[in-house]
Specification:
Layout: H1 3-6, H2 10-13, E1 16-20, E2 43-47, E3 60-68, H3 69-83, H4 86-90, H5 101-109
Antiparallel strand pairs: 1-3, 2-3
C-alpha cells in the first residue's frame, strides 16, 4: 500500500519500479516486454500462474508489480483513504472477488 511513499525518489529510481516479493526468482533480467511492452497507467501485476483460467476470480498477484510511480503518487491519498474506510475495515480488508489485503485493494480500486 505504501510503495508510492517508500519509493518516491524518481531522480534516484526512475519513474518505473519493479516490485517483487522476496520469493520471486528471475531466470533472466526482466524488461518492459514481459509487462506487455507498454508503460502501465498505474501498475501491472504478474499472475498467480502461467495457465490459470478462473472465470470469477482475479489471478493478479501483487508479489510482482511494475509501478508507474508518478501516477501512483497522484492517487495515493484517495487510495489509502478508501482502503482504510470503515466499510473495508468492517470486512477485514477483504475486497470480495478481488481478494484480501494489498492485492485485493489494488485490484478493486484501480
Amino acid at each position: 500500500i505504501d510503495l508510492p511513499l517508500l519509493l518516491s525518489n524518481e531522480e534516484k529510481y526512475g519513474p518505473l519500479i519493479l516490485y517483487t516479493d522476496t520469493d520471486v526468482f528471475f531466470r533472466k533480467t526482466p524488461t518492459l516486454k514481459e509487462f506487455s511492452g507498454q508503460v502501465p497507467e498505474y501498475f501491472i501485476m504478474g499472475t498467480e500462474g502461467v495457465k490459470i483460467q478462473r472465470a470469477k476470480e482475479f489471478d493478479s498477484n501483487a508479489g510482482v508489480m511494475l509501478l508507474n510511480m508518478p501516477n501512483m503518487k497522484k492517487t495515493y491519498e484517495p487510495f489509502v483513504k478508501w482502503v482504510f474506510n470503515q466499510n473495508n475495515m468492517n470486512r477485514g480488508l477483504h475486497f470480495g472477488k478481488y481478494g484480501p489485503g494489498d492485492q485485493g485493494a489494488y485490484n478493486k480500486f484501480y
